[in-house]
Model the fold of this input.
Amino acid sequence: MYGKFLVEGDKSVRELLHSVFKIDAIYGLSGWVERYHSQSFEMHAVSPAELAELSTHEQPDEVVAIASVPAPTDTKLSPSGLYIACDRLNDPGNAGTIIRIADWFGAGAVIFSENSVDVYNPKVVSSAKGSLFRIPVIYADLPGLLSDNNTLAVIGTYMDGESIYSTKLPASGILLIGNEANGIGEELAGMVSQRVSIPAFGKAESLNAGVATGILMSEWRRQLS
Amino acid sequence: MYGKFLVEGDKSVRELLHSVFKIDAIYGLSGWVERYHSQSFEMHAVSPAELAELSTHEQPDEVVAIASVPAPTDTKLSPSGLYIACDRLNDPGNAGTIIRIADWFGAGAVIFSENSVDVYNPKVVSSAKGSLFRIPVIYADLPGLLSDNNTLAVIGTYMDGESIYSTKLPASGILLIGNEANGIGEELAGMVSQRVSIPAFGKAESLNAGVATGILMSEWRRQLS
Done:
């Protein structure tokens, strides 16, 4: 289904109904279709067995929808915004979690390098919990996008970066998250204006990319608030 | 395999070798077994097909090990420690992520209510990335454990709690994380000494339990550092 993606489960589909996304069709159990019946959407009542065929979940949750991937968002960023950019992010769960974090902390968009995971993959859609329908997602050549928006500071996480507890974070900018295994790529490293780290107090080698993003966004908002 | 659990992949098995956990047997591809040969452990060279039979991963990573679940840890907590307790935590990925966060921020242990997910489940072992071998895990009747350790403050997260950016967190205590869908249970609510919240700046309804735990532990350490 080129240009289409699957949204699964009661909660996500209801958030989709209230979004600006174009919905192609909805397939729900008869109870669900009666409850949310609307003239605006093409809704089909299906049996539990038919729903199971359409769903990627072992235990489908009442309904799935087919939506259209939105047209690419403008890559000109606001000079006063807070953004998250991901360099070669691989894991669908991390991508969804990061989109949800962006929505919680009011980021302007999440930008993915072109070789990152596809955010319209059902696992990303699930883990984003509806935030995918509210937060603009941009796929871009990251070095190009950063140089087109070079008035924005770029914050990158490094093991030897300055502690986020003692460094002053900028009033606006782009938080750059590296690949899960290899961190921030070489081509991008030179475009990082501020190298930071999350202090460690134990023996873990690293934090999960989603958790690190949450900690960094929270500390950024704390300093600005 | 009652009392036994599976550890999968090169990195996790190597961390297991350096832990105090009892290892029953190791099954690795011949190259792995030659590389890490040791008199102290029973190591078996297996074919890729045999490894695939033993592994829960679609693409097994060189080796799996069978380890023994450790004897229960003492439930008497240190009055000066930082702890994480989870009330009916369901998701294996969240449990592993929280154990890894505990290891990063130097928590004394992670305590799970008895009806939480089994941390010796292969998905938890995977997502904990070796931290399961370093951080003590306690399964306990949570209300009983909290009242046995009632000199420790209990920090609970609530939508209407005081902002962690303006509240003063205690010098030691237990961070209590609620169930993914239902939050902190009623029986425990009365034992919470400090109700806090992570401020929201956007429209997401909630944060993932692992991400919330990371943000809270980071802010706690920041205030104490």
The first strand of chain B starts at residue 4 and ends at 8. The helical segments of chain B are 10-17, 30-35, 48-54, 92-104, 122-127, 142-148, 186-189, 209-224.
